[in-house]
Amino acid sequence: MSAQSGVRPIGGGAYPLSLTHASAWFAHSAGNTEKVLTVLFFFQGSPGWVGQQTDWKMHPNDNPASIDMTVGNVPVHAKYWPDTDEVEIQGTKYKRSTSNVFLVIGIDETNPVVKPLGIHDLTFKPDELPPVAMLRRDANVWAAVTGHSPSDHPTNRDPGVSHEIVTLDAEGLRLLNTDQFSIAQEDWKQIAPMLTAVEAQLDKTAKLQAEQQSRQWMAVVAGNEMDDYSRQ
Which of 20, 36, 173, 219 could make a disulfide contact with 154, Cβ separation 3.0–4.6 Å? Predict the structure, then answer.
C-alpha cells in the first residue's frame, strides 16, 4: 500500500445527539473486540432541524464511499477516497492524515462552516455508539461540538464551573458511562440536556414537537447503523 493510500470502509452510520446536533461516520473495521471508524462527522444546526423527515443513503463500498442524507431540505454529503485517503464534506476535500473528525457548523444555513478537529482515536468497543463515546472521553471534541470550554468537560471539571453545568455534566457522564447504554427512544430526553443548552430557549410546545420528530428520525438512522454492523 502506498503512502497516499487509505483504508476501505465496510460500513457506517448516523445518529442524532440533541435537538441541534447530529453525527455520521464511515467505518473500516468491526469485530468482536472493537470497531474502528475511518472518519467521524458532527453537524450543528438550528434547534429541531434533526426532527424533519430524513432520506438516508450510504454506499461504503463505492470509490469514493459516500453518505448522502437529506434532513427536511437540508443536504448532508460526505465522501471518502480509499486510494488517496481524502475526505470530502459539504463539497470541500481534506487529507485524513490531518483530521479524522469534523464539525459542520450551521448545516441548515446557506453557507455551512466545516471545522476540522484534528486526529483522534477512532477505536471503540463493539457496543459503543461512536459519537457518544467520543463526546464522553474527549474534552476537546466535546468542547468544539457543544460550545463549552474543555475545562467544563465532566472528566476535566474545574472548581469554578457553574453548578448548572456540573449537574448536567455529572448526569450526562453517568448515563454515557453506563455499560447498558441503549439507543432506545426513551434515552433521548436524558441525553439532550447534557449536550447543549439551546433547548432551553424553546417554548414547551415547540420543544415537545421537536423531540417527537427527533425520536422518529433517530429510529430511522439508528436502525440503519445497527443493521450495518449486524452484517459485518
Answer: 173
